[in-house]
């Protein structure tokens, strides 16, 4: 019988933490595969096994988007019996004509009466007798045939990489400030990869930003939801607030003040929905509002941790991840995320906190925040 064998990471986790991690991973795998027939997910000592009725490749594609999985392979599962193991090994090796191989055995189940080395040697011998045109190379084999002796015997060769990270939902919730750009979806994904469930907020300024810019953010949420969660997107109608900033603050400070307002609104949403941190797509030095002085001023309005997983990355590295995770093509659609008319010609590059606070003194931001209209859109996985 063929079975999907899953290896998972973070083995350094200990005690209760580890059980929590493993149970959540099993739950997430079941959730990801709930549309398929005959799925059985089982966990034993450091491995998760998935049985399915056909659809193996589709199931594997789903598993490639489950955080916490480091490796996926299809294994043959047979009884703990030498002949059964020989037959499975011979069958497996028949597809590798012309190749060199070696057998590697692990035996966590010590009740099986042969040692690992012995099993490898015996199985290797049977393969040589029964499979044409294969030969042994213990130093540099084309194929490693793995045998694991557990409550059953599992045989497999080759392993596909999983995406790694920690199971989604094992590290709380955070609100991501999600624009339609390249960076923030990558930032969101990187925190999801560390187990953080996300809630998204998008600042929309119609008619200065088009509907299609909002649709882009919705599509980005859809893409992110494929990695294992429904996403609530909070669309903040930001027009009046932004016009007030434009009207009442020094032009060179409008961007930094707008960023501070966004953080305040995001923190409010986080508090309301039980999130404990904020996430942005900022990368040090990328633009005027991302210098160390600007980040200092932006950070000052919130007590929450602000996660900026891209802070030390080059644009090319960020682009590479966005292509890998599938957000790039959506992000580069040509609609502006934040209306260019509000961007000052000469933004301040090294703002001084006292001056910024003075610069926003004519805005009654608490009143604005209270009166904001926020639409909530639920983006379901598989939608
Ligand atoms: P991105 O590629 O994510 O748009 P960026 O390089 O364009 O980032 P900025 O425009 O300075 O950088 O924005 C910095 C961060 O502020 C973004 O990564 C995002 O987290 C947040 N942000 C900016 N504009 C918006 C918006 N309209 N709605 C929600 N968040 C936003
Ligand atoms: Mg942007």
UniProtKB/TrEMBL annotation:
ATP binds at residues 177-178, 202-203, 259, 281, 290. Its EC number is 2.8.1.4. Pathway: Cofactor biosynthesis; thiamine diphosphate biosynthesis. CDD domains: PPase_ThiI (cd01712), THUMP_ThiI (cd11716). GO terms for molecular function: ATP binding; CCA tRNA nucleotidyltransferase activity; tRNA binding; tRNA-uracil-4 sulfurtransferase activity. Residues 57-161 form the THUMP domain. It is found in: Cytoplasm. GO terms for cellular component: cytosol. Keywords: ATP-binding, Cytoplasm, Nucleotide-binding, RNA-binding, Thiamine biosynthesis, Transferase, tRNA-binding. The keyword Nucleotide-binding applies. Pfam families: ThiI, ThiI_fer, THUMP. It is an enzyme of class 2 (transferase). GO terms for biological process: thiamine biosynthetic process; thiamine diphosphate biosynthetic process; thiazole biosynthetic process; tRNA 4-thiouridine biosynthesis. The keyword NAD does not apply. It catalyses: [ThiI sulfur-carrier protein]-S-sulfanyl-L-cysteine + a uridine in tRNA + 2 reduced [2Fe-2S]-[ferredoxin] + ATP + H(+) = [ThiI sulfur-carrier protein]-L-cysteine + a 4-thiouridine in tRNA + 2 oxidized [2Fe-2S]-[ferredoxin] + AMP + diphosphate; [ThiS sulfur-carrier protein]-C-terminal Gly-Gly-AMP + S-sulfanyl-L-cysteinyl-[cysteine desulfurase] + AH2 = [ThiS sulfur-carrier protein]-C-terminal-Gly-aminoethanethioate + L-cysteinyl-[cysteine desulfurase] + A + AMP + 2 H(+). Catalyzes the ATP-dependent transfer of a sulfur to tRNA to produce 4-thiouridine in position 8 of tRNAs, which functions as a near-UV photosensor. Also catalyzes the transfer of sulfur to the sulfur carrier protein ThiS, forming ThiS-thiocarboxylate. This is a step in the synthesis of thiazole, in the thiamine biosynthesis pathway. The sulfur is donated as persulfide by IscS. Belongs to the ThiI family. This is Probable tRNA sulfurtransferase. It comes from Thermoanaerobacterium thermosaccharolyticum (strain ATCC 7956 / DSM 571 / NCIMB 9385 / NCA 3814 / NCTC 13789 / WDCM 00135 / 2032). The gene is thiI.
């Amino acid at each position: 019988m063929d079975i999907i064998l899953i290896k998972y990471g973070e083995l350094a986790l200990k005690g209760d933490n580890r059980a929590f991690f493993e149970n959540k991973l099993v739950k997430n795998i079941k959730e990801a595969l709930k549309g398929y027939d005959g799925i059985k997910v089982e966990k034993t000592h450091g491995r998760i096994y998935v049985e399915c009725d056909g659809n193996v490749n589709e199931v594997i594609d789903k598993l490639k988007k489950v955080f916490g999985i480091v490796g996926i392979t299809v294994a043959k599962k047979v009884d703990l019996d030498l002949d059964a193991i020989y037959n499975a090994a011979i069958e497996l090796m028949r597809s590798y004509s012309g190749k060199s191989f070696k057998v590697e055995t692990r035996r966590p189940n010590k009740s099986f009466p042969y040692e690992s080395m012995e099993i490898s040697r015996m199985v290797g011998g049977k393969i040589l007798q029964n499979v044409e045109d294969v030969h042994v190379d213990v130093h540099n084999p084309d194929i490693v045939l793995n045998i694991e002796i557990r409550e059953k015997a599992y045989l497999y060769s080759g392993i596909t990489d999983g995406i790694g990270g920690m199971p989604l939902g094992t590290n709380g919730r955070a609100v991501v400030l999600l624009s339609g750009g390249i960076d923030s979806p990558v930032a969101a994904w990187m925190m999801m990869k560390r187990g953080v469930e996300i809630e998204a907020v998008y600042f929309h300024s119609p008619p200065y930003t088009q509907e299609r810019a909002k649709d882009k953010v919705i599509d980005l949420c859809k893409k992110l939801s494929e990695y294992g969660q429904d996403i609530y997107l909070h669309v903040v109608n930001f027009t009046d607030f932004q016009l007030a900033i434009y009207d009442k603050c020094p032009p060179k400070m409008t961007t930094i003040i707008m960023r501070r307002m966004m953080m305040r609104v995001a923190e409010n949403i986080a508090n309301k929905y039980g999130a404990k941190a904020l996430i942005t797509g900022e990368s040090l030095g990328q633009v005027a509002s991302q210098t160390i002085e600007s980040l200092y001023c932006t950070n000052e309005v919130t007590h929450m941790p602000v996660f900026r997983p891209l802070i030390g990355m080059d644009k090319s590295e960020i682009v590479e991840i966005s292509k890998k995770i599938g957000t790039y093509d959506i992000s580069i659609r040509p609609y502006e995320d934040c209306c260019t008319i509000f961007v000052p010609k000469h933004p301040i590059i090294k703002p001084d906190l006292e001056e910024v606070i003075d610069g926003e003194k004519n805005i009654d931001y608490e009143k604005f925040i209270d009166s904001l209209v926020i639409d909530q859109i639920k983006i379901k996985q598989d939608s």
